[in-house]
Structure prediction request, 379 residues.
Amino acid sequence: MQDWASRIREGDVRALARAATGVENRDPRALALLRELAPDVGHARVVGITGPPGAGKSSLVDAIARELRAQDKSVAIVAVDPSSRISGGAILGDRIRMQQHHADPGIFIRSMATRGSLGGLARATADMVRLMDASGRDWIVIETVGVGQDEVEIAGLAQVTVVVLVPGMGDDVQAIKAGIMEIADVFALNKADLPGADRVESELHAEAGDVPVVRTVATTGEGVPALIAACEARLEAGSHAHAHHAGVTIDHLGIAVPELAGALAFYEGQLGLAVSHRETVETEKVNVAMLPAGESRIALMEPSAPDSTIARFLEKRGAGLHHLALRVPDLHAAIGRLRAAGAKVLDEPRPGPGGQLYVIVHPASTGGVLLELIQESGH
Prediction:
């Protein structure tokens, strides 16, 4: 295993290809290899390319790869394709239009079949990105299937998400606003030499505010250096924001109790804490009382229905600490980093007490504690 990992670190393309096949097939040896390579992850720049069918995503990815190679950067392309109904493999293989790059060891192309996974990303995509990162690639470009609004999962994996749109979409800018429009860090207005580019760009600025819009013509390479520069700017802005918010803060400790009245008799009566907020979270079937304690809070949770998660927790373990909640400046970015590192993040962000978005990280990834990540207010 160590020899296999060493060959990948040294840039052995055959070893990398073998590992990629193993990762996609969930081969235990390949997954063990990922654990061996874990210390080498975290250096690549990960960019997601998404957008509706016909936007020219594959041509744009091809042009991005060419430009990055001209800048002497190594590239891995992870292209997520629909599954073949016959073989279960990726229908488009390694993208015929990208075959010209196969003689260049600085570009590694891997197509992945979705195999029924929703959201435009294959289940193993996060592991594939980790593998490419560990192999020393400077940039990893993820191209999704291109099915429209369901592709928002890419925002949880890529550091920068580029949404590709084209002129001539009619009212489609409005139609897709509630889906992939909202995850864009950068818009690529591709095929910008076609009529209607000015109108689409104006609509994007009106709908998306300060999200950069870069005009590109993938077939000629026009605008691609500017697109890469826009991605780099967003990456730098993200890293500065991360540095500014380097200290993740404790939002609250969640404590499961059979009933709030008895618990509050202690926390209010004996400790002198005061309830700042009470709420019933219908989706979780739980009554919550929040008590500030310094800069953090204690959340007392009482089941509001016998089939709630808290009721099952009490039945199995009794009253006590249920979870630790951390407040993070960018929830989607945090989810992406955790998944890229192999952590088990459950479900997608959903509203909790006070309407704040949160996700749960499985205790298997945290050292035994159920961890809740909460979006910092105002982000």
